């Protein structure tokens, strides 16, 4: 029976990843969070010293470590700490205290930056992030790739736009849901930023399935794999469908900029052929089901 440690198990992606892995009869799963609790081991990759992280690894003896920790917003120091220093400290601890453990690290499509419309983004495309979030996530990915070259067993799963139950208010779908609820209660208009972008939305439960496939894989021959739906969907379609699901009949006003994390990126679509070949994974949950379940989770 394999032992798996999920770091950041209390976050949006981490909760779904931990939940799926914990339901597998052949895995023994533990999880960490920055605050700690009766359920989670307290670990903060950005603030704890590698020796402290290493002591935790020595106690848990994981065969696989899944790193779901990170930050999508905050100050320069906060983003660098969560997305660069954190992975660096984890890799240092792994090299000393658990050198045989596999590391599955979650990256972000923001690492790619601006893409050509109608051209799916493959892993071989050189990354050129346009914002601080993408820059720091890319730095973390490059550290993981380097560790792989130096002998650790590592793979980066580069996640496109997560959607589905529990989507946080900081994500585009989460912001739309929160604004629909606010406007309905206040009998106000829905106020959103620009809806001109096109994105690849992938259900968070499909992301968890991809992580499970990576955990179980005996070998992965590439350093980075995309996780997406393989479909380009206008943001306006997501908003339209959520408005319909909510039953909101008021006015929706879209003005200003979109997400600060990717305001310059107008179009994204993942090429997911590599993860199909390497892990046998493909997305199973359609956008309509993702949006329905996301709305029902807060209704």
Global morphology: globular
Could you name the CATH class of the domain at 2-163 and 202-228 and 272-284?
Answer: Alpha Beta
**Name of the CATH homologous superfamily of the domain at 2-163 and 202-228 and 272-284:** NAD(P)-binding Rossmann-like Domain
Main structural class: alpha/beta
Largest sheet features: 7 strands, parallel
The low-confidence parts are none
Number of helices, where a helix is a run of at least 4 consecutive DSSP H or I residues: 9
In helices, the fraction of residues equals 40-55%
In the CATH scheme, what's the topology name of the domain at 2-163 and 202-228 and 272-284? Answer: Rossmann fold
Concise overview:
The chain has helices at 12-22, 50-60, 76-97, 132-149, 172-186, 204-216, 235-246, 273-279, 287-298, and strands at residues 2-7, 27-33, 41-42, 64-67, 102-108, 153-159, 161-163, 190-192, 198-199, 201-203, 224-227, 233-234, 252-254. By secondary structure, it is of the alpha/beta class. The radius of gyration is 19 Å and the shape is globular.
Helices and strands, with pairings:
Elements: E1 2-7, H1 12-22, E2 27-33, E3 41-42, H2 50-60, E4 64-67, H3 76-97, E5 102-108, H4 132-149, E6 153-159, E7 161-163, H5 172-186, E8 190-192, E9 198-199, E10 201-203, H6 204-216, E11 224-227, E12 233-234, H7 235-246, E13 252-254, H8 273-279, H9 287-298
Parallel strand pairs: 1-2, 1-4, 2-3, 4-5, 5-6, 6-11, 7-10, 8-13
Antiparallel strand pairs: 9-12
Helix pairs in contact: 1-6, 2-3, 3-4, 5-7, 7-9
